[in-house]
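User: two proteins, same treatment. go.

Assistant:
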Amino acid sequence: MRSLSVLKIMLLMFVLLKSAYAQTSEIQAKVYGVMDGDTISVVTLDKKQIKIRLSQIDAPESKQPQGQKSKQSLSDLVYGKTVTIKTESVDKYGRTIGTIFVNGVDVNLEQIKRGMAWFYTQYGHDSVYREAEKKAKSLRIGLWNDSAPTPPWEWRHGSKLSSSTLSTSPLLSSCGVKQYCKEMSSCAEAQMYLTKCGRTKLDRDRDGVACESLCK
């Protein structure tokens, strides 16, 4: 029994050390794909393919205003280049969260400076990023040149349904009998059933997003 306890302790120490290493590790890789303004695909020196989500920032989604410009900006910075990635964690989608550096330049921060991404207040912790956003906003650079840019987290969560959609769609004007994601015809409808009709089973992981298969 004692040997079993010692084995458990050693195993726990290994897991903790591995976790600590993963949170502070650096990897070098070549960028072969740019998904949007805050997500890239890389291949490491040992030929491992990894999808990277840039930490502390949130770029406009591809279908949002400035979405394609944000993607192009990130592509100009990293595509085809060898980068250094300071990894932090892995999100629920299997993407590695980290900061990208090219020749010593913080690419995450550069996207904010260019007005191509928001400082992600929910997950951000660096005051330099926050100040960079304030400066870009004051200079009306990039997305800040729009009169009222919608943060991507609001756009994703469907919290800004247009009044015209609400008035013309019978599905969205009142609560019906639908209960499951497979019954929903769109992300907007699923989000309405979650927030307006109390269908909490549509949000299994309780992150505020209904039916993530629809609301990607």
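Protein 2:
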Amino acid sequence: MDVYSQSSHAGGLVARGGGLHPPPEVLLNWPKPNYVDPEERGWAAPIVLLMFLGVTFLVYVARMWARIAISKNTGLDDILISLSMIPLFGLTIATVLGIRIYGYQWHSWDQTTETLVTSREIALAIELLYMISTSLIKVSILCFYRRITGRLTHQFVYWVYATIAFCVIYGVVFTFVILFTCTPIEGFWRYFDIAWRIQNKLVCRDEGAIIVACAAISSVQDFIICLLPVLLIWNLQISKRQKLALCGIFGMGLITCFCGLMRTYYATKLYYFTYDITWIAYYGWIWTNLEAQLAVICASAPSLKVFFNRYLTQYTSRDGYTGNLSRGNPPEVASKLASNAFVSKQSQFSSHKSQIRGGDATSSEEIPLDGIHVNHKLQISIEERDDSSYKSFESTKALTELPPSHQVWRDRIEWAESCRNVCAAFRPGSMGNPGIRSREGDIEAGRAI
């Protein structure tokens, strides 16, 4: 047996292990179709996907609010991530419909003539929406990398541009390849429609090879995008703790990489290791959707720091500040102190807020790596007097406190003497001024204040 025949035999073994064309012996072993009460998936996965979509949308809103309202520093990456949200919503809706209504909730042997068509329609929609949304998200992340580097390193910029070109070419090519898997295009979802196939000529390429290659290349791109910032951060002149923190933020994309690997695994299993395609594709569509949603969350993670610094830290510090004021003071006193101190804190903060702009940075909240951001914070703590300080305060108070109104000042010789000392202390030039000295004599004698 020559090499060609061996490779053909190996390919035949793989093809017989699964795919869209179950052999007769497999069809004979399938259970009898159950169109009344078939085994089906529940609502757990659709609910989880919709909840994830809600979280993803909130993260996106927080990101855009931080960029537009707080830092006023939007860029091309924000435009691309905004565009990606449109197909992402469509992807989630299509996935929910597919795994709950359009056929992927049942086994292949329980499919009706209607779901044999709708399952293929929704599959094509999911694949195309996935390609568009994830390509936009990846390019958005890479544009953000280019934005924060400035002119730090030309080598890193070249890597970013090369990866952008890779993602754009991949997205465009595979979008059209998937769309034109079958000629005519309608043949993709009419693939199992026997009546239509009899009346129309259909030519289809190797769908399994296309989808598996698409998923595998996407996973490779995810790993490249996650590793690029690590190479940049590790060469920065910052502490190891800061490096690890930044790597952790950008390393969140590894979760997306895991989802991409699971998508590749189920795509391979679907087309090469099982004929129950609708039952197994159920898991593949879930991982496909999670990959796209988590990509948006990871892409927005750096901007969330600005959002939380503005709102979460502000509320936390305000609550803690009021709590310190109320400790050891009566409620009414603590309330007045908190009110006055808050006003004082606000005015001092506004007068001391400073900013140093560098490069193209114009934001007071989010400064790229080529800028410096200086923050001044004020912390006030009011504590109770101890016994010694309280006694000192009482002795000082006795020196300057006026005598009771019912007593004659002339009889308060000790008060006059102390008042004279205080006046002399606060007016050191008074001893050389005759007018003032006579005034002091009157005070000492108790004739005037």
